[in-house]
Predict the structure.
Amino acid sequence: MTNATKKRVIQEIKKILYDHPRYRGDSENVQNKYAFTERPNRGVIINGTSADRVRLSADNYIGRHSSFVMLTSVENFPGTSIEWVVENVNELARISSKRDVFPSSPGVYRIKITDLPDDAHKTPGYFTVDPILTVLGEPLIVFQSSADQDAQLSRDGIYPLSLRLWLDNRIALIPNVDYSVDYASGHITFLKPTPSGESVTADYRYTQPTTGPFSFYREQFNIDSIPGVVLAFGDRVQQFDQLDIVVTDERVYTMDVYGGKFEVHFELLSFTKDSEDREKLSDYLIVKILEIQNVLGMEGIELIDISPGGENEEVYNTETDDYYYDSTISLSLRVDWEIYLSLPIVMQRQESTSLQEEQANGHLTTSYPLDLLKLGSPTAVAGAPVSIGGRITYERTV
């Protein structure tokens, strides 16, 4: 959090210098510590940072965030390359004044990091996107008799293990017990006599061609790869990392939000080779920071105090008697902070029939009536696309 605040301060000081005709050429000489390859004639350094302690606890709980999009990890990958994702509110507002229409189809969009960017923000990194789109409640077949053994999904290239078939839109059929599926073609074969008059609907995901590559830099946003989604890349980008962006057809709770305020203190060190310019530069910075405090306040950055500090002279070249003259400015800010913790996606349906009964009998046979209200074993849950014990499959990603 202190690093993000410092970068925002650096950005604002660069703008302040650029707005002054005399200091415009020095606007890029504002850095965190002395990171210059060759020290310039004039510039500003963020020389020190301190902040109060921030605890993440229930005391800081704000509420739950609802969204069309959610970031989740992929098994066996670090999942650190993207810090968070949010809706692109400008894009949603362009489509609908109520912002209730999302421009990307529901599904999972798998991000794959192929190349890393450099630290100097000169050479970008690259990533690709593999869309795995979601179909919910597709009408598949209405059985005319017990002889109906075949059905066809409207899409091919079905993502492995993502298919769920629902009898009468409430009972999950059992793969390899009630039916088999050719995932490449989308062809369904029913393995038992089918109940006349009953209907079957299908939930599944299907793959689309890879898009990209898209360029990115560390600690910057990307809004072009998935329409409606803002991807925030951090400084923990790893090559060959993979992450999933889940897009839903309506807003759901995606994150718990914690937040509060913390105080941070910076020491700005302005330096120049002109002794008279030292006071002018420091005074100019103080006045301009006071002028923009309302702008920063709208961003949740409150100016507590700004004051000039000590002055110093530093010998640059003893042979030529060349000096650097510097002065300090103490800057104290109170900053709003928020942290977002992803929530699991809530499964949509659940059967309470025991797993043992279900695997033995299936659901197509009419001689074994199953009902959502039937009590089953307390140790097994059947018919739900979720694995008890922590490994979520279909409802998260497969």
